[in-house]
C-alpha cells in the first residue's frame, strides 16, 4: 500500500453507477468503484448481496441496466472483445468441456486470447502448478485443488492486466488455499491487478490492499482493511459482535447484520 | 503478467474460430460412440425394410433410403445437438467461453458447423449402406445432391433443436422434450409414408418437418424432374428453419440459472 500512497495511483478499472436488475429485482444498485494498477481489491458481502452480479457485469456476462465499466479506458459494453482481451476471469464454478484434456483446454483458451503456444510452452506452464503429468487427463478427473489451480492458469494464460476472481478459495483445503494466495500475490508482484470476491474476512484482511463491502446491491464502504477497522472500532454494532480485538469480520458483520442470508 | 499485458490486443477472429472448431471437433471425435449410435437407428430401419412388402408399403426403395437419411439427421440433430448444448449450458461451459474475447456467435457457429459435419457423416453412411441394400445405383451428382439436401434437412432439425434449448432451460427438461419431439417426428415420417392412419393424416404428415425433407431426398435420389411439390417442400424447409431459428435465438439464454 505504501507505494500506492506515495505515487499517483493509476486506475485500471473504473466502474461508475453500475446497476444490474433481474426483472423488477435490483441486484446491484448504482455502485461505483475504482481499482488501481497493482492492487488486490476485495469485494465483500453476504450471500445474495450482489457481488457475483456486479462481477458478471464487469466481465461482460450481464448487461447492466445502467452505468459504465471502463477497463483501462475501454468500455466493456462498446468494445467487449478488446476489453475482455485485457482481463482474466475465474468464475465461481469453472467448467470446461468434459471431453477435452488439460492440454487441449490450454490450447483452446490460448487460441481464444490469440496466444500461440507450442507443446513445450504448454508443459512449461503446467509444470509450475504440478499439472504437467496430468496434461493428458480430462479436466473432470483432476482433484478440486488441481482444478482450481488449472482454472487460475487458464485465467492468466494471456497475461491480463486485470484478474477477476469470484470466490477463488471456496471449497479448498488450507494447503491449496495458501498456494492459491501465494500465486495471486505473485501475479500482483508481476504487475497485475486483482479484483476478487471472498467470504473469508481473514483472508481479505491479510491479502487485500483495499476492500469494498456490498449489501442489498449497494456499496456500503471502500477502504483499506486497516482503515475500515479503525473507523468502525467504536461502532456499537461492531462492538456488539467483537470478541477481543476488532477484526475485519467484526466490522463486516456489524455493517451487514448477523442474520443468515440465503 | 509481464510487460506484454500492456499491449494486449483483440485476437484475430480467424484464430478464435479455428480454436473453437478444433476443440468442438475433438469433442465430436471423442463422442464417436454417440455418433455411431445415432447411425444405428436409420441403419436398422434400412435392414428391416429390405423386403418387397415393406418397399411397397413405404413407397419404394428410394423413398426408404431418403426416409432413413432423414431419421439419421433427426436423431443426431435433436438427440445430439440439443442435449449437448443444454448440458454444457447447465455446467457453465458457455459462461466460461463468454468471458473470453470470442464473440458469442462464434461459439454457436462452431458448434453448428461441427454438427453439420456429423450430419454429413451420418447421411453418407446411410446413403452408402442404403444404396447397397436396396440396390440403388447412384452417380456422383446424386451423391452431391443428397449431401446438399442433408445440409438443408440437418438445418431444419438443428433449428428445431435450437428452439428446444431456447425455450427450455434445464438439461433434463430438454432431454425429455427432445425425446418426445424425436418420436413424434419419427412417427409422422413413417405414418406419412405408409398412410396407415388414412389420407388426412397422410397429408398432414407430409408437411411436418420430416415430410418435405424426405420428399427432397426422394427427388434427388430418383433424378425426377423438379415439380411444384418440390418447390413447396423447399419453401417449407426454409420456413421451418426461419421460424425455429428465430425462436431458438430470441429466447436462448447462455446461463441456465
How do the helices and strands line up, and which of them pair or pack?
The complex is a heterodimer of chains A (262) and B (257).
Chain A: H1 2-6, E1 11-22, E2 25-36, E3 40-44, H2 51-59, E4 66-71, E5 74-75, H3 80-84, E6 87-90, H4 102-112, H5 119-126, H6 144-155, E7 162-166, H7 174-189, E8 193-197, H8 201-207, E9 210-215, E10 218-223, H9 225-232, H10 236-241, H11 248-256
Chain B: H1 13-30, H2 32-48, H3 52-57, H4 61-91, H5 93-98, H6 104-133, H7 140-167, H8 171-194, H9 199-206, H10 210-222, H11 228-250
Helix pairs in contact in B: 1-6, 2-4, 2-6, 4-6, 4-7, 4-8, 4-10, 6-7, 7-10, 7-11, 8-9, 10-11
Describe this structure in words.
Chain A contains eleven helices and ten strands. With 262 residues, chain A is α/β, with parallel strands linked by helices. In chain A, a hairpin with a 2-residue loop joins strand 9 and strand 10. The mean pLDDT of chain A is 90. The longest helix of chain B is centred in the first third of the chain and has 31 residues, at 61-91. Chain B has helices at residues 13-30, 32-48, 52-57, 61-91, 93-98, 104-133, 140-167, 171-194, 199-206, 210-222, 228-250. The interface between A and B is large, with 38 and 37 residues.
Q: Spans of chain B with pLDDT under 50 lasting ≥5 residues? A: 2-7
Strand residue percentage of chain A: 15-25%
Shape of chain A: globular
Query: How do the helices and strands follow one another from N- to C-terminus of chain A?
Result: HEEEHEEHEHHHEHEHEEHHH
Query: N- to C-terminal separation of chain B?
Result: 33 Å
Class from secondary-structure proportions of chain A: alpha/beta
Global structural class of chain B: mainly alpha
The main sheet of chain B comes to:
none
What integer is the average pLDDT of chain A? Answer: 90
Oligomeric state, counting identical vs distinct chains: heterodimer
Amino acid at each position: 500500500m505504501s507505494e500506492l500512497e506515495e505515487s499517483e495511483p493509476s486506475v485500471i478499472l473504473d466502474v461508475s453507477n453500475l446497476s444490474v436488475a433481474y426483472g423488477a429485482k435490483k441486484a446491484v444498485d448504482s455502485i461505483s468503484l475504482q481499482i488501481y494498477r497493482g492492487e488486490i481489491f476485495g469485494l465483500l458481502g453476504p450471500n445474495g448481496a450482489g457481488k457475483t452480479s456486479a462481477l458478471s457485469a464487469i466481465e461482460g456476462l450481464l448487461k447492466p441496466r445502467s452505468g459504465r465499466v471502463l477497463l483501462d479506458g475501454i468500455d466493456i459494453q462498446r468494445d467487449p472483445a478488446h476489453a475482455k482481451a485485457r482481463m482474466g476471469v475465474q468464475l465461481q464454478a469453472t467448467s470446461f468441456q468434459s471431453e477435452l484434456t488439460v492440454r487441449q483446454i490450454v490450447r483452446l483458451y490460448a487460441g481464444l486470447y490469440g496466444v500461440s503456444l507450442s507443446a513445450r510452452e504448454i508443459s512449461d506452464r503446467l509444470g509450475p502448478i504440478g499439472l504437467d503429468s496430468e496434461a493428458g487427463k480430462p479436466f473432470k478427473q483432476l482433484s478440486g485443488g488441481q482444478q482450481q489451480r488449472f482454472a487460475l492458469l487458464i485465467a492468466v494464460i494471456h497475461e491480463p492486466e486485470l484478474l477477476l476472481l469470484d470466490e477463488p478459495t471456496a471449497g479448498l483445503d488450507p494447503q491449496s488455499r495458501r498456494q492459491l494466495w501465494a500465486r495471486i500475490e505473485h501475479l500482483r508482484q508481476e504487475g497485475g491487478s486483482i479484483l476478487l470476491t471472498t467470504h473469508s474476512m481473514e483472508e481479505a484482511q491479510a491479502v487485500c490492499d483495499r476492500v469494498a463491502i456490498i449489501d442489498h446491491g449497494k456499496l456500503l464502504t471502500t477502504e483499506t482493511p486497516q482503515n475500515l477497522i479503525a473507523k468502525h472500532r467504536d461502532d456499537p454494532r461492531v462492538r456488539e459482535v467483537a470478541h477481543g480485538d476488532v477484526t475485519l469480520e467484526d466490522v463486516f458483520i456489524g455493517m451487514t447484520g448477523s442474520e443468515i442470508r440465503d | 503478467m509481464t510487460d506484454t499485458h500492456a499491449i494486449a490486443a483483440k485476437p484475430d477472429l480467424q484464430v478464435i474460430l479455428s480454436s473453437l472448431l478444433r476443440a468442438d471437433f475433438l469433442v465430436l471425435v471423442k463422442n464417436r460412440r454417440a455418433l455411431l449410435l445415432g447411425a444405428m437407428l436409420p441403419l436398422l430401419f434400412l435392414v428391416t425394410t429390405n423386403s418387397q412388402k415393406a418397399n411397397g408399403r413405404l413407397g419404394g426403395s428410394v423413398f426408404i433410403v431418403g426416409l432413413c437419411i432423414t431419421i439419421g439427421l433427426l436423431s443426431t440433430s435433436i438427440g445430439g445437438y440439443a442435449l449437448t448444448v443444454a448440458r454444457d449450458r447447465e455446467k457453465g461451459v458457455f459462461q466460461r467461453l463468454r468471458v473470453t474475447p470470442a464473440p458469442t456467435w462464434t461459439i454457436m457457429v462452431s458448434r453448428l458447423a461441427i454438427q453439420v459435419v456429423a450430419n454429413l457423416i451420418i447421411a453418407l453412411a446411410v446413403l452408402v449402406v442404403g444404396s447397397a441394400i436396396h440396390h440403388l445405383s447412384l452417380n456422383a451428382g446424386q451423391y452431391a445432391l443428397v449431401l446438399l439436401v442433408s445440409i438443408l434437412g440437418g438445418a431444419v432439425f438443428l433449428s428445431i433443436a435450437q428452439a428446444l434449448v431456447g425455450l427450455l432451460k434445464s438439461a433434463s427438461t430438454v432431454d425429455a422434450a427432445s425425446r418426445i419431439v424425436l418420436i413424434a417426428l419419427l412417427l409422422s415420417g413413417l405414418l406419412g409414408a405408409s398412410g396407415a392412419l388414412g389420407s388426412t393424416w397422410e397429408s398432414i404428415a407430409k408437411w411436418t418437418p420430416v415430410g418435405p425433407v424426405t420428399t427432397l431426398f426422394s427427388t434427388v435420389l430418383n433424378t425426377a424432374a423438379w415439380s411444384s411439390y418440390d418447390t413447396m417442400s423447399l419453401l417449407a424447409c426454409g420456413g421451418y428453419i426461419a421460424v425455429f431459428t428465430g425462436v431458438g435465438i430470441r429466447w436462448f439464454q447462455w446461463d441456465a440459472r
